[in-house]
Design brief:
The chain is built from 11 helices and 28 strands. The protein is globular. Among the domains are: 90 residues, Trypsin-like serine proteases (Thrombin, subunit H), CATH 2.40.10; 99 residues, PDZ domain (Pdz3 Domain, Roll); 104 residues, PDZ domain (Pdz3 Domain). By secondary structure, it is an alpha+beta fold. It has a 7-stranded antiparallel β-sheet with strand order 5-4-1-2-3-7-6. Strands 22, 23, 24, 25, 26, 27 and 28 form a 7-stranded antiparallel β-sheet that branches. Strands 8-9-10-13-12-11 form a 6-stranded antiparallel β-barrel. It starts with a helix and ends with a strand.
Length: 479
């Protein structure tokens, strides 16, 4: 009996140590230091500065405004006649990383958007002017290139689908212009939708990310790029431990297209979709809450031609399961243009299969209107008001998020003889209505304003959002 107890004791002891050994082998130890890894990765990360020319108007030299009709009005105008709009250069800072020894560098589109000059500074202190190979505002990715004979050290991408919540990550970048800054943390969450676009699928991290980190890499502990740092969630503009990175797998597809074609080529089927709620699933006889509910199909679009209708639920696309609404746009976008794919839909409490030929998103009028580049039709000079206006663009929304989905026109310039020059209006204000009629864009503003002028009014009421994001009404004397 004693021998049996002894054998059992020895068996349990061996088993215990075996379990401990296996656990230690499978677990990842907290690193003592990231120093060796950082030393290897640092030369691949660059600082980026982008110069832009902006137009500003000199400040009122008096701490007050003269009312219209004042005897001092003409004197003030004469005094301020040299206060015409002036152009000055501004500089924005960001980060990037080298993916090819030929000088190809990745950064965020918002870092270099509308820049007249892009300069890349390496860790050796040398600076080069970069040219743009291509950009994609939808995913906020830009590919640029520098020419140098210096040996460059490139980094590679990780398979971001294999990254897990809790994994260690390292961010290297140029926050607040302090180049070569390293922060470390973990992956806090995956598949985050922060309402920045239809392809939102961000990696969330608590590694400190600040202004200037945009475009920089988020590395895993093997030194591979698992994400591109793109945004932060903060009420103060500083890091509060909630940063977001574009996953490397999504970024790779976009980068490959830009480097190959100079632009993106995403799939498109022409449907508007919404979430399948529990109530919708129950009402349509669907056992589980899955798929993407089609709210409408664009007339003449691929889905419409294939017979897909409003009320259908797309369960599977090109042999890939659509777990939820957010997954469908990503699957469609990555499908090759012109490919004929099978789509499984739920209709009348049964599964049907349709065949869709995928077309290209960038060729659609919908995409072109959402990502319109500045053109002559985007600007207008309103002589009667002495102002130059333009449509609200993506850059305005980045600076003032409250303008997202807002309709109106941006006051680009106010000349010194403008009737607005003596009123509490300034460049950067947004006109959202004329005579209480809502304004959508430049063309719409011109049409409404012309109709109001034909009424032979002495003044016109403008509704604005000022640079402090406050609504206000301004009566403008036009006669």
């Amino acid at each position: 009996m004693t021998k049996l107890l002894k054998n059992i004791k020895n068996y349990l002891l061996v088993t215990f140590f075996y379990v401990i050994l296996i656990t230690n082998l499978n677990s990842k130890e907290v690193p003592d230091s990231f120093a060796d890894l950082v030393e290897r990765l640092m030369p691949s990360v660059v600082n980026i500065s982008a110069t832009r020319v902006v137009q500003t108007r000199s400040q009122n030299p008096f701490p007050f405004q003269f009312p219209p009709g004042s005897p001092f009005e003409d004197l003030f105008k004469e005094f301020d006649k040299n206060g015409a709009p002036q152009k000055r250069k501004t500089q924005s800072l960001g980060s990037g990383f080298i993916i090819d020894k030929s000088g190809i560098i990745i950064t965020c589109n918002h870092v270099i958007q509308s820049a007249e000059g892009i300069f890349v500074k390496l860790t050796n202190g040398k600076e080069y002017e970069a040219k743009v190979i291509g950009t994609d505002p939808t995913s906020d990715i830009a590919v640029i290139k520098i020419n140098t004979k210096d040996p460059l050290k490139a980094v590679s991408f990780a398979d971001s689908d294999k990254s897990r919540v809790g994994d260690w990550v390292i961010a290297i970048g140029n926050p607040f212009g302090l180049g070569g800054t390293v922060t470390a943390g973990i992956i806090s969450a995956r598949n985050r939708d922060i309402s920045m676009g239809k392809y939102d699928d961000f990696i969330q991290t608590d590694a400190a990310i600040n202004q200037g980190n945009s475009g920089g890499p988020l590395f895993n502990t093997r030194g591979e790029v698992v994400g591109i740092n793109s945004a932060i969630l903060s009420n103060t503009g500083g890091s509060v431990g909630i940063g977001f990175s574009i996953p490397s797998n999504f970024a790779k597809n976009t980068i490959d297209q830009i480097t190959k074609f100079g632009e993106t080529k995403r799939g498109y089927i022409g449907v508007r979709i919404q979430e399948v709620t529990k109530e919708i699933a129950d009402s349509l006889g669907l056992k589980s809450q899955e798929g993407a509910l089609v709210s409408s199909a664009t007339t003449g679009g691929p889905a419409n031609k294939a017979g897909i209708e409003a009320g259908d639920i797309i369960l599977e696309f090109n042999n890939k399961k659509v777990d939820n609404m957010r997954k469908l746009p990503k699957i469609v976008a990555e499908t090759p243009i012109g490919e004929n794919v099978s789509v499984k839909i739920w209709r009348d409490k049964k599964i049907l299969t349709k065949q869709i030929t995928v077309s290209r998103l960038e060729d659609t009028s919908e995409y072109k209107s959402e990502n319109n580049k500045p053109s002559l039709s985007s600007f207008a000079t309103i002589k009667e008001l002495g102002i130059k206006i333009r449509n609200i663009n993506n850059q305005d929304v980045e600076k003032r998020p409250n303008l997202k989905n807002k309709k109106g026109v941006y006051i680009e310039e106010i000349n010194s003889n403008s009737p607005l020059s003596l009123l509490p209006v300034q460049e950067g204000d947004i006109i959202i209505a004329v005579s209480n009629i809502q304004v959508s864009d430049v063309k719409n503003f011109e049409d409404i304003f012309k109709k109001e002028l034909k009424k032979n009014l002495n003044s016109i009421l403008l509704t604005l959002i000022d640079t402090n994001n406050q609504n206000k009404f301004i009566g403008v004397k036009i006669k």
